[in-house]
């Protein structure tokens, strides 16, 4: 539902610009926005949004940690956060 939130923010604050961090590195921004439009009936202005693609999202995916999943995911979110912010 992040798309509904972004749409509401854009409607209330017309000068706000949003950044979306995405691990969907195989999809283009236009494809992501089209999916949001089709699934949630939300139209996002592509001029007011930027995508930062996280190539290291796998660090926090549960499939890599069959045991102690949540504990290990917590241990990897900080490096992913630093990586994300350094690529903004």
- The string of secondary-structure elements, in order, is HEHEH
Helical residue percent band: 40-55%
Total number of beta strands:
2
* Biggest sheet statistics: 2 strands, parallel
Mean pLDDT: 82
| Total domain modules | 2
Backbone CA Rg: 15 Å
Globally, the shape reads elongated
Quaternary structure state of the chains depicted: single chain
> Any low-confidence stretches, pLDDT <50, length ≥5?
none
- Strand order across the largest sheet: 1-2
Structural class: mainly alpha
Q: What distance separates the N and C termini? A: 22 Å
Query: What proportion of the residues form beta strands (DSSP E)?
Result: 5-15%
Supply the number of helical segments. Answer: 3
Structure commentary:
The chain is mostly helical and 88 residues long. The protein folds into two domains: 1-53, no CATH class; 56-88, no CATH class. It is 47% helix and 11% strand. A two-stranded parallel sheet has the order 1-2. The chain starts with a helix and ends with a helix. The model has no long low-confidence stretch (mean pLDDT 82).
């Amino acid at each position: 539902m992040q798309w509904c939130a972004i749409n509401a923010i854009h409607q209330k604050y017309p000068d706000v610009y949003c950044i979306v961090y995405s691990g969907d590195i195989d999809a283009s921004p236009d494809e992501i926005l089209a999916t949001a439009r089709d699934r949630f009936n939300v139209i996002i202005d592509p001029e007011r949004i930027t995508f930062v693609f996280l190539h290291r999202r796998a660090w926090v995916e549960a499939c890599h940690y069959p045991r102690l999943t949540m504990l290990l995911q917590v241990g990897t979110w900080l490096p992913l956060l630093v990586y994300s912010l350094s690529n903004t």
